[in-house]
Amino acid sequence: MNTSLPDAIVLFAHGARDPAWARPFEAIAGSMREHDASTPVVLAYLELMQPRLADAVAGLVELGARRIRVVPVFLGAGGHVRRDLPELLATLRAAHPGLHLDATPAIGESAAITRAIAQAAWTLVAEPLAEPAAPGVDTPGTDTPAAVPQP
Predict the structure, then answer these.
(1) Active site residue 14
(2) Do the beta carbons of residue 11 and residue 44 sit within 8 Å?
């Protein structure tokens, strides 16, 4: 076993009012669990959704985790990653003495992610677009109603 790996992983995302927004993050967590079922992988959110980071970390500590790595699932390292996350981590370290808690860079800073997004963008551009829905009709596969054409 690689001893540099954490006991548990928290995927930390922003959060949104619409529960459908979390589907891609849930898929990432599920894929990670399939890859290694022995390492707990949980989601946590900065705001608007549950669980919050403090609750996710507390739950993992209750399960016996002593080394937790947080992966900010943000495309860039804006204020939430550079300012809010370090403050949250400091508070959690104080609340859980003996816990080794650290964070990776924002996932979007990874060259593998930028390459994957670029490839996906090219794939999407190459596919024919679906016919637009009638004004005011929900568009399948999205979480927002179809746009109403502007004059």
Answers:
(1) yes
(2) yes
